[in-house]
Amino acid sequence: xxxxxxxxxxxxxxxxxxxxxxxxxxxxxxxxxxxxxxxxxxxxxxxxxxxxxxxxxxxxxxxxxxxxxxxxxxxxxxxxxxxxxxxxxxxxxxxxxxxxxxxxxxxxxxxxxxxxxxxxxxxxxxxxxxxxxxxxxxxxxxxxxxxxxxxxxxxxxxxxxxxxxxxxxxxxxx
Length: 174
Description:
There is one protein chain. By secondary structure, this protein is α+β, with helices and mostly antiparallel strands. Helix content is 28%, strand content 26%. It is built from five helices and nine strands; from the N terminus they run βββαααββαβββαβ. The strands form three sheets. Strands 4-5-3-9 form a four-stranded antiparallel sheet.
């Protein structure tokens, strides 16, 4: 089932590629190039509310919780995905032959080649370079919308490192 499962499953688009005029495609990314992707789980309304309420309390000088900042573990506990979501996403990745997926907080990290990422997400990855800043390394981004199977789309907010381009500070001549 590993490589063929992607093509025969109903799929859902997560995010359209964004376009930034200062980044231009240099063409297809090298098929064997390794990339790291992060699959971000959707937050429930209750998780968003709890996180926002906690952030407001620790930021409010009138609150008894003022300046009692949460540890990474406490934040992870607030936003931990449901067991059903974790199982579904890990099963999808396993079905696709992705090994070594690691859940950290509210995301799953995977290391794959460009070819595997393109197959997994039914997209085409390109190498992009900054139009004006030649000192900035090129980056890999999706040139076409990416999709995930419908069975996991309800659990996924986005796959990072695919559509957003970094904003760079302006360097003024000296």
